[in-house]
Design goal:
With 450 residues, the protein is mainly beta. The chain is built from seven helices and 30 strands. The strands form eight sheets. Strands 5, 6, 7, 8, 9, 10, 11, 12 and 15 form a nine-stranded antiparallel beta sheet that branches. It has a four-stranded mixed beta sheet with strand order 2-20-19-16. Strands 24, 25, 26 and 27 form a four-stranded antiparallel beta sheet that branches. The longest helix is centred in the N-terminal third of the chain and has 12 residues.
């Protein structure tokens, strides 16, 4: 379903006095999973040969976007032990497998005792897609669900979202691995067991037997759950993605409590980036700026911070002034590592003199980028290098040195054809002294220090 966690309240920038006491921040006041509070149902089969035998299902119990009354109804049956020895009594390959209605023990079929039916909580944002669990109900009665549920084997949204008031999805498997038992059940042969078991509804029962055996030879011939249980965990996990100034502040996490421990007798700035990841692995990031003590204000012409990423697969760097792109990379491209806050661009509105646009080209063959301030080079690339595409992401900088500006040096890697940029004289000297395949190409442009 891929619902990304929400930033419910952006992390606030902080201005802290020198030698102040530690600051603590409860991150659950800033991030939320709109679907769940962290309840996980564990469906354990007797037969572990069926895809490992265990499926973990995240329950959507959060008020608002979730289905809290449906989950509470499901929990009542779980807590009463009603699903112990329950069976998958209906299998329609490519569609659903259904359970929660019957138990099978000592070769006897019994009905799961039902509570009063519940109000339908269908929401199109919780759609009947593959791997979701939804409530079964009586035809032409949207508010008739009791104990029975089904797993969607495919994307059934076009069908099940649009009939009988919509079928209420109240959970989803945690991972692809949790689909394995469900798919294994769906691959079993299906028998009409209505006459054997004296239950007219049991016409599509998956069976796990030899062809010469009878359904009622053993309890294990049907797909039975040893137990279904529910546990509680934190709905989100947090991680400090970046601290731009660890000499100024030490940042630590204790579950959802973020702690800022300030160094003694130090002034300065830091940017802290926090990532929140939900139980299905989807993430969101937010950041805040920290100022400790008396710090000179930023120049009025300071623009966006430039973030520097390293692609661990190719060894090539990517630079971006966009926090949206930064967050996309952090959440979706694990092969990219945020190395540093490289430098600051020039504000194109307040810069005096007016800065120039730095163009960013993507080499479609290698996935590397070229950054240039030169209109001549831009036109040459567009005319002669068809594998280079001009991207919309850009920044502003100076062609000549200005007060408080710093040079950004440019190198060309003769082995890979990629360019490398750095504002650090120390790094420039290391590259020149130790990497003979990097040809210096001078100063690409001038920016501002962090």
């Amino acid at each position: 379903m891929a619902t990304i966690p929400l930033i419910t309240q952006s992390l606030n920038d902080l201005n802290i006095a020198q030698n102040a006491a530690n600051t603590t921040i409860n991150l659950f006041q800033h991030f939320d999973d709109p679907l769940t509070t962290g309840k996980i149902a564990r469906f354990e089969l007797y037969d572990s040969s069926l895809g490992g035998g265990v499926s973990n299902v995240l329950l959507f119990d959060q008020p608002g976007a979730g289905a809290p009354e449906t989950v509470n109804n499901f929990l009542n049956y779980v807590n009463d032990g009603d699903y112990v020895n329950s069976i998958i009594h209906r299998s329609i390959p490519g569609f659903v497998i259904q359970g929660g209605g019957f138990t099978f023990k000592n070769l006897m079929v019994d009905l799961v005792p039902t509570d009063p039916p519940i109000v339908n909580e269908f929401n199109s944002q919780r759609s009947n897609t593959r791997g979701t669990i939804a409530m079964a109900k009586v035809g032409n009665d949207p508010n008739s669900a009791t104990s029975q549920w089904f797993f969607n084997l495919a994307d059934n949204s076009a069908n099940l979202d649009n009939q009988n008031g919509g079928f209420t999805v109240f959970g989803e498997v945690l991972s692809q691995g949790d689909l394995a038992p469900i798919d294994a059940i769906a691959s079993l042969p299906v028998e009409d067991a209505s006459s054997f078991l004296n239950q007219p509804a049991l016409t599509d029962v998956p069976v796990n037997i030899e062809s010469s055996s009878a359904i009622d030879d053993s309890d294990n011939n049907l797909v039975r759950y040893r137990n279904i249980s529910v546990s509680q965990t934190d709905e989100l996990k947090f991680k400090v993605i970046h601290n731009s100034n660890p000499d100024l502040v030490q940042v630590s996490l204790n579950q959802a409590e973020l702690s800022l421990d300030y160094a003694d007798n130090r002034n300065g700035r830091a940017e802290i980036i926090i990532q929140a990841t939900d139980l299905q692995g989807d993430s969101v990031v937010d950041s805040f700026d920290l100022t400790v003590g008396n710090v000179q204000p930023y120049p009025t012409n300071r623009g966006a911070t430039i973030y520097r990423f390293l692609n661990n697969d190719t060894g090539v760097h990517l630079y971006t002034a966009s926090k949206i792109e930064r967050d996309h990379i952090l959440n979706n491209l694990p092969n990219y590592k945020l190395e540093s806050l490289a430098y600051a661009s020039i504000d194109n509105l307040t810069g005096n003199p007016a800065p120039q646009k730095v163009y960013r080209f993507l080499n479609k063959d290698t996935g590397t980028h070229l950054y240039t301030l030169s209109e001549v080079e831009k036109q040459s690339v567009e005319t002669n290098l068809k594998n280079f595409t001009l991207e919309t992401e850009s920044l502003f900088a100076y062609a000549q040195a200005q007060p408080n500006s710093i040079p950004v040096y440019r190198f060309y890697n003769t082995q890979t054809g990629a360019h490398f940029y750095t504002p650090s004289e120390v790094e420039r000297n290391v590259v020149e002294d130790t990497l003979p395949n990097y040809n210096p190409e001078g100063i690409a442009y001038y920016a501002l220090p962090i």
